[in-house]
């Protein structure tokens, strides 16, 4: 899902060569793919475990998935924002979508970091590798989220004026 977010960023090297419209479509396709994997993972884990959502990893993960459902709906309002202009200003729907996206992404990535410390990973990886994974994930979060946060701030400013 990180790349689905980055495809909209001007800082992304390979997405500079595609049009804005193509980037929006690619964002949509990659997010659908990531959402499908997310749902499939939840279903598999739900069926294979007796207790659910007791750990910080599970709680953050299911919270991210819950926000993801609202995020998907808000994505449609952004996609059809010009047609829905009578109900909501396009900048408002984009701001809501951006805020939900940032929240969902950060919660999901933090859940991933807690997942690095699950028993089955600890069985196969040493703490140095797990710490490296956590640090690299933090760097990826920061790089990926810079542009959407800047965009959100600008959207909030333009709604306020």
TrEMBL record:
Entry's EC annotation: 7.2.1.3
Gene3D superfamilies in alphabetical order: 1.20.120.1770
Sequence ranges assigned to domain Cytochrome b561 in this UniProt record: 1-155
Cofactor dependency: heme b
Keywords: Electron transport, Heme, Iron, Membrane, Metal-binding, Transmembrane, Transmembrane helix, Transport
Keyword Cytoplasm appears in the UniProt entry: no
This protein's name: ascorbate ferrireductase (transmembrane)
Species of the source: Microctonus hyperodae
Top-level taxonomy: Eukaryota, Metazoa, Ecdysozoa, Arthropoda, Hexapoda
